[in-house]
Amino acid sequence: MIAFLGVACLVAGMATGTSFDTTIAVRPGARLTVNNFEGAIHVSSWARNLVKIGATHAQRASVMVDGGPVEVEVRSVGRMGVPGMVDYDIVVPRWMDLKLQGVTTGMRMEGMEGDVEAATVNGGIQLVGGRGFVHLAAVQGGVEVRDARGRLEVNAVNDDVHLDNVAGEVSAEAVNGDLVMERVDAASVEGETVNGSIHYSGALRAQGRYRFATHNGDITVVLPRDPDASVSVSTFSGEFVSSLPVQISDTRRGRNFNFVLGHGAADLRLESFRGTIRLVRVEDGKDKSDKLERRAEKLERKAEKLAKKKEDE
Amino acid sequence: MTHDVPATPRDDRWTARLSEYLDGELVPAERAALEAHLPGCEACRAALGELRMVVARAAALPAEAPAHDLWPAIEERIAGGARVLPLSPRRVWELTLPQLAAAGFLIALLSAGTMWLVSSKHPLPPVPGAAPTTGPVASGGAATLPAGFDARRYDAAIADLERVLQQHRAELDPATVRVIEANLRIIDQATADARRALAADPASPYLNNHLAEQLQRKVDVLQQATAVVAAHVNS
Q1: Second label for A76, Cα 20 to 30 Å away, from A52, A214, B150, B181?
Q2: A187 with A207: CB under 8 angstroms?
């Protein structure tokens, strides 16, 4: 069933017991909003100007779709109070902007080229692709972004943030989790956590600003082959180790100091209250790949565990 | 994609529409435009967060009859030919009646310090009494810290937000509450570490900055927690 949108309307899907399916034609510029209480949201993309919404849901839940000329709104509704579980499988035009909200909801988005905004309380968020403005936030669940370009704001309270092959402006935050940033090409990168480590591997552009800060954790920056940065290091009871020949190359405790690599074109600030701050060469960074792989495996295991938990429920 | 340039509350045309947005009174095009504006406007996001807290509080308030019926006196004045002044057409802020009722409650609950802190992410200011930046880390943010930082303002704001969270604790998923509280404890520990370190080295720009960051982070997490409260209340 395809509903064409001219005026705001409620779109009736093909609802059979505990499943829902509808397809909506949309105009360029339209946006999709999905609001789910419990379950999962999976969004993929295609080259057609159609939004295909599929869902399986608990008996006490139903799906409401509100279509308008500039927005398609999908929400889970409880027949008696809080909505039950709803798993969405949605396909959207690549250009479409997304806004996903959930409470106990895992989210995965693939192939997006529009803005993406997603927030959940319990559950992880995965984004593959993404252009423009990307804002992802999870309280209890990891956040993973791959192959995204644009302005990225990523926040995980109680889990890790993993960014891979991203470009643009990057801001990543956690409270109790690690920040792993690999293959980053950005003029501005900010990473902050309280109880976690930070790993950064990527470009240090001329006039770029890079700041990494943690309280209880180590910071590792894998430097490009010919690093060109003004580096400031701040710590209270931590240590500094560099595999590059910098002026201050010994391990010290409780020091703040600056030094220059190359001509000092980029601004690199590293702050760890009690952890070790490490600068490593790119070739040394490759030696650390085992560690990164272990982290990736850890994230995968978490995703599997979540999927299994969902199946059990 | 384009985003509106962040605007101050006074010149932001959306600020006055936030309560309509919350009430679902905007037409879809306006709603979409406002939602497109929000990611780029911190002031609107903060104001919206406050309004959501107001609505959450309103939902929790018991229905009470007024202590006095005001209508007879009003009726008497009208009948007596009281002069009626036209209302100014200028409308700066609109709230629905339940929001107004709850706003009073919330304003009483949250101190001015809280509203100031949650309405913007401030640059990181130094602790009073800290010496000017003269150390080796003189470049960047630490050197541009504004004067007048008072950690007590953060403490008061945090206490207010914690009270809101505590009052809605029972409405939240216990696992979520445990996670939020565990993370708040982690931040508290970092804050305590920073305070102790500052006591030994009060002139350190890094430590001043670090303390302010921990306090601001706690405000941020508490704001996230109150947003979770709102999500539960609305579900």
Answers
A1: B181
A2: yes
The bridge status of strand A50-57 relative to strand A97-112 is unpaired
Asked whether A143 and A156 are in contact (CB, 8 A), the reply is yes
**For helices B205-234 and B174-200, angle between their N-to-C axes, nearest 10 degrees:** 170
Higher confidence at residue A185 or residue B4? A185
With 0-12 / 13-18 / 19 or more C-beta atoms within 10 angstroms meaning exposed / middle / buried, residue A250 is: exposed
Strands A50-57 and A19-25, sheet pairing: antiparallel
Look up residue B154 and give its two tokens. 């953060």
A136 by DSSP, 3-state: which? strand
pLDDT in tens, A245-286: 886 644 444 578 889 999 999 999 999 999 999 999 887 655
List of residues 6+ apart from A12 with CB closer than 8 A: A1, A22
Alpha carbon distance A198, A192 (integer Å): 8
Segment 147-186 of chain A within 8 Å of chain B by CB? 150, 157-158, 175-176
* C-alpha span between B193 and B178 (Å, rounded): 23
Bridge partners, A125 (sequence order): A107, A143
Residue A119 token pair: 């927030």
**Which chain B residue has the Cα nearest residue A96?**
B1
Return d(Cα A51, Cα A307) in angstroms, integer: 25
Q: Within chain A, where are the H helices?
A: 282-287, 289-312
This model of the complex carries an ipTM of 0.80
Q: How far apart are CA A165 and CA A148, in angstroms?
A: 7
Identify all chain B residues contacting A31, using CB atoms and an 8 Å cutoff: 32, 35-36
Backbone angles phi, psi at B66, to 5 degrees: -65, 150
pTM (two decimals): 0.68
